[in-house]
C-alpha cells in the first residue's frame, strides 16, 4: 500500500493545512470525504462540501447528471480531505482520471487541519 500511495502522490503536489486554508480563501473547493461517524465525532470544516467517498466521482464530475452544484468545471481547484490523508490521495487519483487535474489532497487530513488550529464547527 505504501508503494501505491507513493506512486499516486508523485503525480501532484499535496497541500499542508495552512496551504489548504489559503487555497479555500482563493476559491478552491474543500471536499470532506470522511465517514458520517467521524464528522459527527470530530466536527466539520466550515464551508467544505461533504461528499461520501463512494459518491465522490459522481458528485464532482462537471459533466455528470448527479454533480454537486459546486462542480462547475474541470478547471476547479479541489482539495480532498479524509481523516488522516490516505484515502484522499487515492480519491485524487480517481478525480485526475475524470479530468479534474487541479485536484489535490490535504497532508494529514482532517486531523492535521484541526491540529493546526484551523476552524472546525462542532
Give a brief outline of the structure:
By secondary structure, the chain is of the alpha/beta class.
Got a strand count?
4
CATH fold name, please?
Oxidized Rhodanese, domain 1
Gyration radius, rounded:
13 Å
The number of helical runs is: 6
- Give the strand order of the largest sheet, numbering strands 1, 2, ... along the chain: 2-1-3-4
User: Which CATH class is shown?
Assistant: Alpha Beta
* Shape by Cα distribution: globular
Sheet with the most strands, sense and barrel status: 4 strands, parallel
- C-alpha termini separation: 33 Å
Order of helices and strands: HHEHEHEHEH
Summarize this structure as a short list of keywords or feature phrases.
Oxidized Rhodanese, domain 1; 122 residues; globular; 39% helix; four-stranded parallel beta sheet; alpha/beta
What does this structure look like?
Strand 1, helix 3 and strand 2 (49-50) form a beta-alpha-beta unit. With 122 residues, the protein is α/β, with parallel strands linked by helices. The chain has helices at 2-9, 17-25, 36-42, 56-60, 87-97, 109-115; strands at residues 29-32, 49-50, 78-81, 103-105. The model has no long low-confidence stretch (mean pLDDT 98). It has a single domain (2-115), classed as Rhodanese-like domain (Oxidized Rhodanese, domain 1), CATH 3.40.250.
